[in-house]
Write a structure and sequence with these properties.
Layout (H helix, E strand, L loop, with lengths): L1 H22 L2 H8 L8 H8 L3 H13 L4 E2 L5 E2 L2 H8 L3 H13 L2 H8 L15 H13 L3 H9 L3 H7 L2 E5 L5 H9 L4 E6 L2 H7 L13 E5 L13 E7 L8 H11 E12 L5 H8 L1 H17 L14 H11 L5 E5 L6 E7 L1
Parallel strand pairs: 3-4, 3-6, 4-5, 6-7
Antiparallel strand pairs: 1-2, 7-9, 8-9
């Protein structure tokens, strides 16, 4: 166990070094000016990236000892060809390493939540950098898959209805990455993004089409998902929740509101972290990734979803059984569960009113 704990500590250090390299574009700088045939000294990397040489040298030393960068006897560095894409493109593992530091930032506050006499949970605002990284994460996982993969997976003629023109609500839209993609691809439909976080909605309202023009079929609203405008009753053909259900303190109130606002022939589609609702089964199914899933829930999703006396405290690993039970209680009795291999670690729930 001592060796295992040591290895965990080493991995933690390396993960943070990867985070630094990604945030400061050090990997890209190194890839642009070096190769196995032409390795470079840290001063060249620092100059290219606009950083201090001494810090960059220690960063290079750390990652070379962790077998992430290559080094020779002259202490010159390069990225192996087979590792270049993984370290220089916005991919799931790289962004996830970068995202971890944002949920670790309020660790002392989280420790107090564990104590019996401590606070119920944490306000979303204490994760000050999380929203920005979450949107980058959403961009990486959504940009290439929302239109060609997710929309057809929802079925029920939704793709054709979106093309003809329907009314769509994105609940917990954050900065609007997903709903923007949909609004641009389906100009005949009208889209509304709703989120309780004013900062996120402010950012969403600045979104433009790919050609720089303004949207005419997309609007955003600051509102509580558990208390949406009364005028929304029976008014949406499609309601979407992209990973926003489990973070809520009262996801049951949210889903009851979703049931109210979707039309009688409407569709509700919810993406969420996949799990079985049983930790033993999850460990056997996902292996070491199960620890990552539960750890992410412990560090962020559980505390923000527990921050009131009446919170349901779901956490992101509430799993299929608990999720379907809650949806049933909120009036959705025919819930279809669809795998989403294009969204790593997630699953899609599709239901009708």
């Amino acid at each position: 166990m001592q060796d295992r704990l040591t290895n965990l500590a080493i991995s933690n250090v390396l993960s943070n070094a990867v985070n630094i390299g990604n945030r400061l574009h050090l990997f890209k700088a190194l890839a642009e000016i070096s190769s196995e045939e032409n390795p470079v000294l840290p001063e060249k990397i620092a100059e290219r990236a606009g950083c201090k040489e001494r810090y960059v040298r220690e960063w290079c030393n750390t990652l070379a000892c962790g077998n992430i960068l290559e080094v020779n006897e002259k202490e010159e560095f390069w990225i192996a060809n087979e590792n270049s894409e993984a370290l220089t493109t916005e991919n799931f593992p790289l962004v996830f390493n970068t995202m971890l530091s944002t949920v670790l930032k309020p660790i002392q506050n989280l420790i107090e939540c564990f104590r019996k006499d401590g606070p119920y949970g944490l306000d979303y605002n204490v994760y000050s950098d999380f929203e920005e990284m979450q949107q980058k994460f959403a961009k990486v996982t959504s940009e290439n898959h929302i239109i060609p993969s997710l929309v057809p997976a929802i079925g029920n003629g939704i793709q054709e209805r979106l093309q003809s023109g329907i009314r769509v609500l994105d609940v917990g839209c954050g900065s609007g990455i997903q709903v923007k993609l949909l609004a641009e691809h389906f100009p005949n439909s009208h889209f509304i993004g709703l989120d309780i976080t004013e900062k996120a909605i402010e950012a969403a309202r600045l979104l433009k089409k790919s050609d720089g023009s303004d949207f005419e079929n997309l609007e955003f609203l600051v509102a509580d998902a558990g208390d949406m405008p009364k005028s929304y009753t029976d008014s949406f053909d499609l309601v979407l929740l992209f990973g926003s259900c489990h973070d809520q303190m009262r996801p049951d109130l949210c889903m009851k509101e979703v049931h109210r606002v979707v039309k009688s022939d409407g569709i509700v589609a919810v993406t969420d972290v996949d799990g079985s609702s049983n930790v033993y089964t999850d460990r056997e199914t996902y292996g070491k990734m199960a620890a990552m899933k539960y750890g992410g829930s412990m560090l962020h999703c559980l505390p923000v979803g527990s921050n009131s006396p009446d919170a349901l405290c779901c956490g992101s690993m509430w799993g299929r059984r608990r999720a379907v039970e809650l949806m049933n209680k909120c009036g959705f009795f025919d819930v279809e569960i669809i795998p989403t291999d294009y969204f790593p670690g997630s699953v899609l729930y599709v239901m009708k009113k």
